[in-house]
Specification:
Layout: E1 7-18, E2 28-35, E3 41-47, E4 58-64, H1 73-77, H2 80-89, E5 104-114, E6 122-129, E7 132-139, E8 151-157
Antiparallel strand pairs: 1-2, 1-4, 2-3, 3-7, 4-8, 5-6, 5-8, 6-7
Length: about 160
Amino acid sequence: MDERSNIIFEDRFTVSSVDKDGKKFDRVSRIVAASRDLGMELTLDIHAELYPLAEGDVFALALARSLKPDEDAAEADEDAGETRKIKRELWRADDQGLANDYDYVCHGKVYKFDDSAKGENMTTAYCSFGGLLMALRGSYRHLANVIVGENVFLLMRK
């Protein structure tokens, strides 16, 4: 992927289990899913009332730097002050950018990478979306554009 692209990771997943260790919170479910194309493993906390998933469901997941479409990225870079304003208030506009194409959107931060698990070419990226956690495991090549400390949007659709 182009390093200037807003989408930094994208794949389709199949849910293998929901709350396998029991339900810890009323409205939150922890799903475990396997990638259909890239060989990735996903563990993700989701708001189960807003976006219910069941075992066997297939969904697309993307991580993006912003909700602005890629073609607007070069234009927005010209004026950094305007970029911050657009990113902050995009949710108020009629056209919400990438969020229009997805059913479930969260904003959070990549807080950790762990290269020690499951072989020499495997890594895990950890993100927090307001306390809803995500662990994305797989080849470091597929997570090369994900940077620790970076704010990201999680986008999901069935």
